[in-house]
Known about the structure:
It is built from 2 helices and no strands. By secondary structure, it is mainly α.
Amino acid sequence: MKKISAILGIIVSTIYLLNFTLGFAELPDNLPVIGNLDEFAAATLLIASLRYFGYDLTSWLKKDDNKKQTKD
């Protein structure tokens, strides 16, 4: 069931972010703050769904402990 939900999340969020309706079907983008929350939610859903399948798009945000150099 989780796999089906992740696939649906990828499909729905991708279609929403492609913006085929040119901004007429969703919240108006000219509203301050509220107009951007729908795109934020769709992008978050896409990232979470891709992460379920092993595609971690946020890996570049994590600190890499192997790159730290110790001073002797």
